[in-house]
User: Fold NAD-dependent succinate-semialdehyde dehydrogenase from Nocardioides eburneiflavus.
Amino acid sequence: MSTLTNNHTLIAADAAAVALADRVIAGLGLPGDGIEVEDPATSERIAFIEDIHVDGALQAVATAHEAGRSWARTTPRQRADVLHAWHALLVEHTEDLAHLISREMGKPLAEARGEVKYGSDFVRWYAEEAVRPAGNFREAPDGGASIVTRRAPVGLAVLITPWNFPLAMATRKIAPALAAGCPSVIKPANLTPLTTIFAVELARRAGVPADLVQVVTTSNASQFSEAVLRDERVRKVSFTGSTEVGRTLLRLASDTVLRSSMELGGNAPLIVFDDADLDRAIEGTMAAKLRNGGQSCIGANRIYVQNGIAAAFAEGLAERIGAVAVGAGLGSGTELGPLIDDRAVRQMRAFTNDAVARGAELLTGGTELGPVGHFFAPTVLDRVPPDAEVACTEIFGPIAAIQRFDSEAEVVARANATEFGLAGYVFSENIDRALNVADRLETGLVGINQGVPSNAAAPFGGVKQSGLGREGSSEGMEEYQSVRFYNIARR
Ligand code: NAD
Assistant:
């Protein structure tokens, strides 16, 4: 390709959509000072949230713990009914939630609506899961005993979430904790706390006891975790965020041998074989790369394309990505929103410069977009060398970095040459090949001929340094339960 298609004009936010989001914020009853929350499309301050210090966090632990005593004694059906009611309220407030997500996080409204669907699906899933059998029965092999297992709530859970999916990351933790019978203290990211605050308010309106789920917002996250994770009333930590912070939390968790779930960073390979359907592969890559502006832990990070199809794929992808409409999430027709902050924009610029300096070809994008907000043009780099930063680091932005390959064995080895192992993607019309390659990828999940593999019914999580434990599905509930057994003597 010779021409660059990066003359994006930013779409401005729609005033009525902003007004709707701001009405929801006004209804949250937030304080007039504290930690500032900004709109990443304009850098405008949209709210203050409380800065809760250690004493307040420990008070939240005490309050949730106390409320947890009676919650643990509720019946599965009672818990299910409350979760169903919460799901209904989340669905009823889809527009409020979607506008709020867009306003504080920046994603396009259509994607924000998708997050409301995805996030509320977890609540419905765990409403259903709450009443499913949670134990089993077996005979001891020597016939001398019957062994009955049951699952008990693990206890108070501390939930720490990132900014990129402010609703779904919260419901994916709160809902299984509630279904299992556990109280929780959730600390959302300071960049996007409003959605979590509103979602928990809806949970209370649905019948979740007021004290059972505590939201703690704080400017001092490390002080928070050092105090709270050492409190012996806390029995579980579930974290979604960077691998670096995950390691710190695991070290802290070791002091009290705390049950830990860690959903950490990724470096997903996306592999396109010569026998892939070109259009399907390009559409799947668009979704796996540009969903959430590329700010997703399962975002396609290293795009490997087999030599026979590489030129057509790169050209087709650059054409599609170059034509994407960029602007405020609350703008009409926006397909790609801003990045979360300026640091992310500078990082995209550095990735692009480094790759081009090492010989990559810039097919489209590669520039900051302004004048306000944190925008970077959707970018395609071809023939990226494997040692370029963009090929070794989690990108977390709208850069598609293409590398080329010859053989199946070569690409599997290259795909696995990373300490991360969250998601992978394979595109091939030969299902045997696709499944064989998927089997050999060292990842927790694989999208086959599709770019959006997440689902409330699927056990989401990573291997290697991408994490411990699973979220979603029945496995996600087991994270909040401890297994006990009764050994009943038989004669
Ligand atoms: P981050 O690790 O900086 O922050 C995540 C959360 O942890 C935030 O709430 C933050 O305030 C909090 N935090 C930071 N330091 C802490 C400490 N010492 N003690 C307690 N809490 C602390 O990550 P981020 O920038 O918000 O999110 C991006 C990262 O999250 C990426 O690496 C991405 O891959 C990862 N992520 C993973 C998944 C997954 O399911 N595997 C999903 C989304 C995001």
About this structure: The domain at 268-448 is CATH 3.40.309.10 (Aldehyde Dehydrogenase; Chain A, domain 2). Residues 160-164, 187, 189, 221-222, 224-225, 240-242, 245, 248-249, 263-266, 297, 394, 422, 462, 467 surround nicotinamide-adenine-dinucleotide (CB under 6 Å). Residues 83 and 127 are 5 Å apart (CA to CA).
